[in-house]
């Protein structure tokens, strides 16, 4: 194609689709949202200002999923991204402990908020408890993401309990990004508890509603929640009401909706994991979410050639703090995954 790519960030690929492109890039579910989410929406009613904190019925419904919670513990946000942005701007300054590899937006969000990232390198894609213990004392918060984007790994419950106990003792915030909590293949989700915990979630992944941009933050620390509401008042104001209406309706869909989606993700996980292993790549087996992070030779050359010569998108691992790897999302159908694997194999043979 003769295209010169600027591989400084995922922006080069986000939104690219069609024309024969197979994209293992953005983590956007290709599965349909629940039928309930899009039925009987009153658009005219929803074209007005709403409560900054979020629609009360949606917050009441969410409170049923969090033990000893009320609607007052939530702020409905423009996706999980705004929730994270609000959280760290409310904190205002200090250091935040991050696992590395990390989701590519974490370091910029912290820096824009005046926070300083401190990194702990993972062992086999999971938190090294000794490294955590050594570095957490100098930090104001720890940001964890389990299941993880980009590794697909799920933290052990013992590790999560250790983080819970140590941070509570030290008076340090735990910010738990749980946008993939309903996409776990190995065990049930474990919710970290304590007055120092702030949970982030969204309707994007569980209910395939990425473009609707509805997420939320939850914390039992009401003073922190109130500060987030005050900040949101002067930035984005209310989250769109149509999206909140869809989110509430999605929560009323049958449990079988999520269960059926999970079976599809698991089949795709098995397909791409085994396919990459058969090619000869070294990678961790995902236990949740829908990502793999294999090692590849010459990652920048591989990513560029794969796109320009083979019409396949994968993301550079360096964007996630993993410079010798690439990240693939398997949020696409099985036939595309198979064809994409064939093209990847051919491309690797040429490098």
The backbone outline, from C-alpha atoms, is globular
**How large is the count of helical segments?**
11
Counting DSSP E segments of at least 2 residues, the number of strands comes to: 12
- Per the CATH scheme, the topology name of the largest domain is Aspartate Aminotransferase, domain 2
N-to-C CA distance: 17 Å
- Structural category: alpha/beta
- Low-confidence runs of at least 5 consecutive residues: none
Succession of helices and strands = EHHEHEHEHEHEEEHHHEHEEEH
Major sheet strand order:
2-8-7-6-5-3-4
The biggest sheet, with number of strands, parallel, antiparallel or mixed sense and barrel status, is: 7 strands, mixed
Measured as a percent range, the helix fraction is 25-40%
Number of domains: 2
The CATH architecture term of the largest domain is 3-Layer(aba) Sandwich
Bin the strand percentage: 5-15%
> Radius of gyration, Cα only, in angstroms?
20 Å
- Can you tell me the CATH class of the largest domain? Alpha Beta
Molecular structure report:
- This protein has 351 residues and is α/β, with parallel strands linked by helices.
- It has two domains: 10-32 and 256-350, Aspartate Aminotransferase, domain 1; 41-251, Type I PLP-dependent aspartate aminotransferase-like (Major domain) (Aspartate Aminotransferase, domain 2, 3-Layer(aba) Sandwich), CATH 3.40.640.
- It is 37% helix and 14% strand.
- The protein has helices spanning 43-46, 56-63, 79-91, 106-112, 129-135, 157-170, 222-233, 241-251, 255-279, 299-310, 334-350, and strands at residues 22-23, 74-77, 94-100, 115-121, 141-145, 173-177, 197-202, 215-218, 291-292, 312-313, 315-316, 326-329.
- The strands form three sheets. It has a seven-stranded mixed sheet, sandwiched between helices. A three-stranded antiparallel sheet has the order 9-12-11, with helices on one face. Strands 1-10 form a two-stranded parallel sheet.
- Helix 6 links the parallel strand 5 and strand 6 (173-177).
- The longest helix is centred in the last third of the chain and has 25 residues, at 255-279.
